[in-house]
């Protein structure tokens, strides 16, 4: 893509990270009425401003064409929703995702021990039953302290998260981080891939690794607890007490050498009491980790894992209406998922107001100056 000479060089949206993104339209068709960089800029500006479909993005462009022309010529006006849909259906989602990863890495500064949660989400609106197409499933990595999505990989229709997670790890710079995964990610090759990135892991152990889970439970019955940490939390009408216990004597754990970097096993017991009824429940979960026996650090890492659900998946569903979005053709759903994550990142990075994310989107729709502030242009 070629950008105007007067376009802000420091713009995080349009920089060298996206400049090499290849236009999917055939060059044999001649010059396109709507250059790719204009389409991308229009789409991000519109989604930041609350637009969630190709139709509303096009409407936004027509209403804000004078503002858009401050940055790009838009010589032929604003593309229709059909043009937008066709371009994003054809755009290479893997290349777009790599651009996104590079862009985020230019902004993020990891602190030692930053928790990176990896979790999958189904894009329900991408299902196309009429053509036998299942809904897309995307695995994302979320930096909990920074509040940023670091990248994503589509799960192949004939595969599962176990094969997608190593692909995602390969894209990311994770040195010094703690990677957390649910039971699906408790795999030896995934543990090895995390250690190769000079990071540590906390992996949940459940029934999919029954032999391992049985042995971890047994270790707690025969070995002393090396470290423990407890916490209490009051909120949402309930009281929750959590106890995190760590055992680092692994002599009786079979095939422990097959788990790269394994140093300890973890048991977290959660007791929840509903204040109104007084009824309580108890749940026990097990984990393996490459961290030292620091119970508080492990406890906090496990608690942080759910930020990917609460801060990323929830925002995409509720604020960006991702599950209600009917984008079925080719790469359309995944590319819009990337645009939404870019918009979410930019909105989170804008700190001049304490407004909620939805309020920031509304303000961006109404205020040209504030929209430019979010886009950093």
Structural class designation: alpha+beta
Helical fraction: 25-40%
Shape: elongated
Q: Secondary-structure element order, as H and E?
A: HHHHHHEEEHEHEHEEEEHHHHH
Question: What fold name goes in the CATH topology slot of the largest domain?
Answer: Transposase Inhibitor Protein From Tn5, Chain A, domain 1
Task: Give a count of the beta strands, DSSP E runs of length 2 or more.
Answer: 9
Assigned CATH class of the largest domain: Alpha Beta
Gyration radius from CA atoms, angstroms: 23 Å
Give a written overview of the molecule.
This protein is of the alpha+beta class. The chain folds into two domains: 16-90 and 329-375, no CATH class; 101-313, Alpha-Beta Complex (Transposase Inhibitor Protein From Tn5, Chain A, domain 1). It is built from 14 helices and nine strands. It has a nine-stranded mixed sheet, sandwiched between helices. A hairpin with a 2-residue loop joins strand 6 (227-235) and strand 7. The radius of gyration is 23 Å and the shape is elongated. The mean pLDDT is 85.
């Amino acid at each position: 893509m070629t950008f105007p000479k007067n376009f802000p060089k420091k713009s995080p949206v349009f920089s060298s990270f996206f400049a090499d993104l290849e236009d999917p339209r055939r060059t044999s068709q001649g010059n396109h009425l709507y250059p790719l960089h204009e389409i991308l800029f229009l789409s991000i500006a519109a989604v930041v401003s609350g637009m969630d479909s190709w139709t509303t993005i096009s409407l936004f462009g027509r209403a804000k064409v004078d503002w858009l022309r401050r940055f790009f010529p838009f010589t032929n006006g604003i593309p229709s929703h059909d043009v937008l849909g066709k371009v994003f259906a054809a755009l290479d989602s893997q290349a777009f995702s790599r651009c996104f990863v590079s862009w985020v890495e230019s902004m993020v500064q990891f602190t030692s021990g930053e928790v990176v949660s990896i979790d999958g989400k189904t894009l329900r609106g991408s299902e196309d039953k009429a053509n036998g197409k299942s809904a897309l499933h995307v695995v994302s990595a979320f930096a909990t302290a920074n509040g940023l999505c670091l990248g994503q990989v589509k799960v192949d229709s004939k595969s599962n998260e176990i094969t997608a997670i190593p692909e995602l790890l390969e894209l990311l710079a994770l040195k010094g981080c703690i990677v957390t995964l649910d039971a699906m990610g408790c795999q030896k090759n995934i543990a090895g891939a995390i250690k190769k990135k000079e990071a540590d892991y906390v992996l949940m152990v459940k029934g999919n690794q029954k032999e391992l889970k049985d042995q971890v439970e047994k270790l707690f019955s025969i070995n002393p607890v090396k470290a423990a940490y407890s916490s209490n939390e009051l909120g949402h009408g309930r009281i929750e007490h959590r106890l995190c216990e760590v055992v680092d004597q692994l002599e009786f754990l079979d095939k422990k050498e097959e788990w790269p970097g394994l140093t300890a096993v973890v048991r977290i017991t959660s007791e929840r009491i509903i204040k109104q009824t007084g009824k309580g429940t108890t749940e026990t979960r097990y984990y393996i980790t490459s961290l030292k026996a620091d119970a508080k650090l492990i406890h906090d890492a496990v608690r942080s894992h759910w930020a990917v659900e609460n801060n990323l998946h929830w925002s995409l569903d509720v604020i960006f209406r991702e599950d209600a979005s009917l984008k079925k053709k080719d790469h359309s759903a995944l590319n819009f998922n990337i645009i939404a994550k870019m918009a979410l990142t930019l909105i989170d990075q804008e700190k001049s107001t304490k407004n909620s994310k939805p309020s920031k989107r509304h303000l961006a729709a109404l205020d040209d100056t504030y929209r430019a502030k979010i886009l950093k242009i």
